[in-house]
Amino acid sequence: MFQLIHYMNKESGLIFQDFSTEKLRYKVNFLYLEEGRFRTKDLKLPLLSGAKIRASCNGLILLENIPESGDLSVANPVTKQWIKLPPPAPNKLLSSRRIYASQYGFTWHPGTNEYKVLCFSERKAVCLILTLGSDKWELVNVPEQFIQLARDNTSVNGFLHSIDGDFDDGDKEDMLSMDTADKSFHKKKLPKCRGEQDKLLELGGSLSFISRIDSTAEFEIWVLKDFDKGDWIKLYSVKLDVGVKLANSRSLDSAKPICCLMNGKLVVFAVDRSFYAASTQQPWVKRIWNLKTEHCLTHLNTLVSCKTF
C-alpha cells in the first residue's frame, strides 16, 4: 500500500509533456502560479521514448508505454521513484498480457484508502482494475449504457464520472458514475445541460460541472454536494471576456474548461489554440503563454512514496 509522506506540503499545478529539441526527448513539465505569474519547470523525470502520461492522482502519475506498448508504470515526478505494474493474466477477453486501453483511470478511494488503476476497453465493454499492492487485475464488465466511461472520465474520491452521450447527440442530461471500491455503476442527473462545452472536473476535492450560459462569455460552475441525493449547488461563475482580448467573438464557441487549479480558485480554459485562467474569486482572466497543449492534467507535487508497493 502506498504511504502518504508530507502530503500536506503539496504544490498544485498542471503537468504536461513537451518535446525538447535540445535534448531530443519529451520533458515532463509542471506549470504553477507564483506571485501572480504562471511559471513552468522541468521535473526532470527520465522517460523512455514514447512514454505517455495517462492520469494523475495525489502526486503520482500513471505512465503507458514503458518500455513497450501496453506496459504501465506509476511514478512520482518529484522523488523520481517509479514502479512497473504487473501484466494481466490472459483470458478469453484479452488476447495477450499487454493492455490496450481506450481510456484510463487512476483513483484513490477515501473509504478504503486504496489506489486503483483502471483500463477501459471500449470495443469489448470491459474494464481491468488493479489495486496497487496487488499483483492481480480484476476484470469487470461495463454495462452498455455506461460505455461513455471508456471514452472520457473524471476521477474524484474513488469515483469515475462522465457526461452521458456524445456531444453531437444534443442535450446531455445524465452523469454516469462508477464506484471503484465496489465496482457499482450509477446514473445521476446533471444540474443543467447546454452542449458540447460542458465539462466535469475535479474542483478542490469535489466534482464540478462547468457549463456555458447560452451564447455568452459566462460559465457557471456547479459542485456536487451529495452524490446519493444528486444535490448540486451553483458555487461560482466566471466570464472569459474580463481583462483579455480574444481573437474574435467566435472564439468563445470553442472555449472549453480543461482543469481547475488551486482548490478551485482558478479554472483553465482552452480557447482555439490558446489557454486562459479565470479566477473564481475575483473578476480577472489571464492568458497562460507558456502552456501549449490541452493534453495536460491537474497535478499535485507531493512526496507520496511508491517504494512500499
Automatic annotation (TrEMBL):
Residue ranges annotated for the F-box associated beta-propeller type domain, each copy included: 51-235
Pfam families to which the protein is assigned, alphabetical: FBA_3
The organism's place on the tree of life at top rank: Eukaryota
Protein name: F-box protein At3g07870-like isoform X2
Organism: Nelumbo nucifera
Source taxonomy: Eukaryota, Viridiplantae, Streptophyta, Embryophyta, Tracheophyta
Gene behind this protein: LOC104612196
